[in-house]
Amino acid sequence: MVKSDAQMRSRTYGTAPGARRRWWGNPVVEFVAVGLVALIVLIVGSGELSKRAATDEAIIDAQSTTELLAQSVVEPALPPGLIAGQAAALDKFDRLARHRLMVGDVLRLKIWTRTGKIIYSDETTSDAERRRIAPGVGFGDRLPR
């Protein structure tokens, strides 16, 4: 006896001839789909948490490096004329800063007073272009007004 294609399908899938069984009704397919969704959520969630943790750690590391350099290298080397804006003191400190401070992970160097006036910057800007920093930011509280 030769069986028709519909009869073969009905035996194989347990459905009546002419009826279509939905693939998502299969428990194995549902289990795999839920597992994939859960895996994607875990990957995205752990990626975001890792990114936040890495950013926080980088900020903490930069702050501690800044504190160390400010106390051990910058403070002892600040010439008195730098605060007054003397060109010779600025040149002397600039040479020191470029050779001893602007190495490794240090990208920028700015020194300002408590009032927010920038007295040194590694960026070359004119006095008119210099911005004022909010009082109490960074290490400016260690310098005279």
Overall description:
This protein has 4 helices and 2 strands. The protein has 145 residues and is mainly alpha-helical. The protein has one domain (24-142). A two-stranded antiparallel sheet has the order 1-2. A hairpin with a 5-residue loop joins strand 1 and strand 2 (118-121). Helix 2 (27-77) packs across helix 4. It is rod-shaped.
Strand segment count = 2
- H and E order: HHHHEE
- Derived from helix and strand composition plus strand pairing, the structural class reads mainly alpha
Helix tally? 4
Oligomer: single chain
Which segments are poorly predicted (pLDDT under 50) over 5 or more consecutive residues? 132-137, 139-145
Ordered list of secondary-structure elements with their pairings:
Elements: H1 5-13, H2 27-77, H3 80-84, H4 87-101, E1 110-112, E2 118-121
Antiparallel strand pairs: 1-2
Descriptive tags:
two-stranded antiparallel sheet, 145 residues, mainly alpha, single chain
Question: Could you give a short description of this structure?
Answer:
With 145 residues, the chain is mainly alpha-helical. The protein has four helices and two strands, in the order ααααββ.
